Amino acid sequence: MIKRHNALSSWAIFGTLFALEVASHYSLLRLPYFWDEAGYYIPATRDLFQTGSLIPFSAPSNAHPPLVMAYLALCWKIAGASALVTRTAMLAIAAFGLLGLFRLSAYAANRRVACATVACTAVYPVFFAQSSMAHVDLAAAALTFWALDAFLQNRALAAALWFSLAVLAKETTILVPGALLAWGLVCPVLTPGRKIPLCDDSRAERGLGALVAPIAVLLIWYAYHFAKTGYVFGNPEFFRYNVQATVSPLRIVLALVMRLWQIAGYLHLFVLTLITAWLMTRAPLRDGENSRPRIAIPIQCMFGAVILAYVMAMAVIGGAVLARYMLPVVPLVILICVSTLWRRSRHWLALTAFVLASFIAGLFMNPPYGFALEDNLAYRDYIEMHLEAARKLEQRPPQLAVLTAWPASDELTRPYLGYVTHPIPVIRVEDFTREQLDVATQIAPQFDSAFLFSTKYEAGKQWIARWPWWQMVKRRYFGYHEDESPQAAAEELGGRLTFEEHRRGQWVAIVTMERSEEARSGSGGHEMAGVGFDDQPDGASRLQAQIVASRESHLHFKFDAAIYPGLHDHVALLQPHDSPRENVARAQTLGKLGRQ
């Protein structure tokens, strides 16, 4: 085992990892921001960068601690606010995390296992895709690896620091010290009578303060957040979606199955775990008179406690069952599996190479089931198609608003996200289902184009997808919906397709509305933004447009503009339960906002 690495060696490893990260992500560094980056993290970073506020006002606060946003704001101060700077800065965090994983793996196993573990983790599709994205999960994972390494080596002060920084990156990493505290209480009860001890008493005694410190730090952040916003765990809609709406026995069971899949099989991870399961039937190799050593049982138990805590907690909380939430523990699974390959197979390097090849394939090959686009290079397809559509919309003569859904509504109204050079007024629907398109037809004269796109990955025909019970469950618990096809949506809206592109289960389309000049200009009605209205202007002024903040975890948070004045000034949200007159008034207000 290797317990210490000198500073020079660590810097050399970090420099090598960072160079490899930049080289492998080079073609992705200038991509505009994607999904939750655009909806929350970049607006929050921009608010901190411009005003120094730890609480975002361009999007409703979800109570995420501000460490990652503060780090990015500092990088912007030094090198300028751009996607290139942001993504390079995140790659530095990824390299730092891989260095921490190397140290942890080398201590728990050996350098050979550490090198293979780092290589597998670096190219695992979810880790690779998240490495350059401005989310908080990868930073939380990186700091967790450093915290675990310090904790295992009985460096209590360093462990307390790393654990505290981890919870300031993302609050859910409190699960790690919490799990270790719980295991420290349970382990002594389970150990008596066993030949192999399950816990290390000396580590449990020395590390207690390191596990309590991050709890205090997180409580201080929540107290500050409450003092500034009146909410402890984020805005009410965020809390409802991620906590209150998820506490259902059936949903918890289904989410538990998904979480187990994410740590054992997701995106070709099953290749590694199945090989590991097969090798467990074989005896360990012998080097001379002794068998190759395994990761110490107390360390394996601690890893198991942390993994179990994440699986159980993330099955109960979190409105969207996203794989990136599991980033702090998936590399621990990889470490245990790679150690087993090294211990039980003389061909472990060949097997590791096969695993690496399968992970790399997972970056480019979409799975035959639904998944989040941010989990492999499918997100690049999304960005490139949306960027092309946004450029075409900018080239059209400026007339009326564009009908679209989130996150395209952010992409068109916030130029700093990298899709447009100036804001384009937007009328927003929730999605492109028939119901939402019917709502849009109520105010058809208020928009002259529609930007349509697949709001989820379409995996093709699956027998389970056609099962009525499964469709009902997905709609009830996981926000499932079926968007209309581009052609069907164009017919529903009464327009014609002028742009359409498809890539590997995704599509974008632009529909241009075909209307007469009389319908565009109106006659005798109140004119606003070049559109005729028959409604009186005082009716429009009484009904303020509902300003909408983009969501994290696939949810739109609805707040009044008086509370969050910095939210979209170019977006009006249509509601299916509102009357046509109310939706017209909402769109009329957009006309005023669009001219400001």
Structural domains: how many: 2
Structural class: alpha/beta
The percent of residues in helical segments reads 55-70%
Spatial strand arrangement across the major sheet: 6-7-5-3-4-12
Question: Low-confidence parts lasting 5 or more residues at pLDDT below 50?
Answer: 516-568, 584-596
Q: What does it look like?
A:
By secondary structure, the protein is of the alpha/beta class. The chain has two domains: 339 residues, no CATH class; 217 residues, no CATH class. Helix content is 55%, strand content 8%. It contains 25 helices and twelve strands. It has a six-stranded mixed beta sheet, with helices on both faces. Strands 1-2 form a two-stranded antiparallel sheet. The radius of gyration is 26 Å and the shape is globular. The termini are far apart.
